[in-house]
Amino acid sequence: MDAFTSRVFAGNPAAVCPLEAWLPDATMQAIAAENNLAETAFFVGRAGEYHIRWFTPATEVDLCGHATLASAFVILGVVEPGATAVRFSSKGGPLAVTRDGDRLCLDFPAREPARCESAAAIAEALGRPPRELWASRDYMAVYDTEEEVRTLRPDMAKVAGLDRFAVIATAPGKDADFVSRFFAPAAGVPEDPVTGSAHCTLVPYWARRLGKARLRARQVSARGGELFCERRGERVLIAGHAVKYLEGMIEV
Q1: Is residue 45 part of a domain?
Q2: Range of the domain at 66
Q3: The whole model's pTM is what?
Q4: Catalytic residues
Q5: Helix/strand number for the chain, H first, E second
């Protein structure tokens, strides 16, 4: 599946593996490594209630937006055609996905960032000092312009050596409220094409800074993606499109 896009070869590719029962963790991790995509999602359940897990090529993660969007697309379009909503339990807590016109809308937890005083290590890792540095699960480096974010050339070894899961780079957008890029080399994802979970931190920051709850976001990776977001108290809504690229069977 390609998520947060309405056309193939854009957005963020995710593998979706519906299961009747859980496979051993080592097998799921091996499948994710073999797929070699930013995320492979596995889910078990029925009747609109599922448990979901996500694996990068290197590790299991506690929250993933694009692979949840892709999984919901499979459930609502193939497993339970005609359904309008699905609920997931996960390591990141309860998650819901609903149809919103031709989009799917994720209901995710907000992850408020806190201001960091020193940005020297981030400046060295990303190759350019940010205007501000914030952190929640990930570091969030805030720049003045979209061009600064687009032209970053991170030193991935130095990014991998930082003491957070990943680094988000963000700035005001030219044709969106804000833009971002996401780097998680320590988790096996040097640059993620479109990162739903990063918007759990981005949306609270930009909603407060811009003084509005509804935001249009663009991730300016090479593939690129578009997200339609809303701050809603301790939750964030993240909506987007998804398209199917490939269907097949995995032999294990």
Answers
A1: yes
A2: 2-110+238-243
A3: 0.91
A4: 39
A5: 6, 18
